[in-house]
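Question (not urgent): is this output format expected?
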Amino acid sequence: MRLCAWYLYGEKHRGYALNPVANFHLQNGSVLWRINWMGDSSPRGLGASCGLMVNYRYFLEETASNSALYLGSKQVRASQQVLALVNQFQQNSKL
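Got this back:
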């Protein structure tokens, strides 16, 4: 889950999220909200993402500012759960 959080939050291509689904939602003003262990236990989900599923949350009053922040400054808005996983990854990673 820590690696998934880092992949979605920290891995970039030209400053934007490397994952195309994450990039789509973040451009539209969402918050990287939650990573769910075994959120998709179907054979396809296990093969594509080891069963992990991600939720993006849209706060309607914040979508325009979140989108502008992401597109202008390339900053990803994320929940405390995701940021805690990112922090754990950074502390334990040798990357």
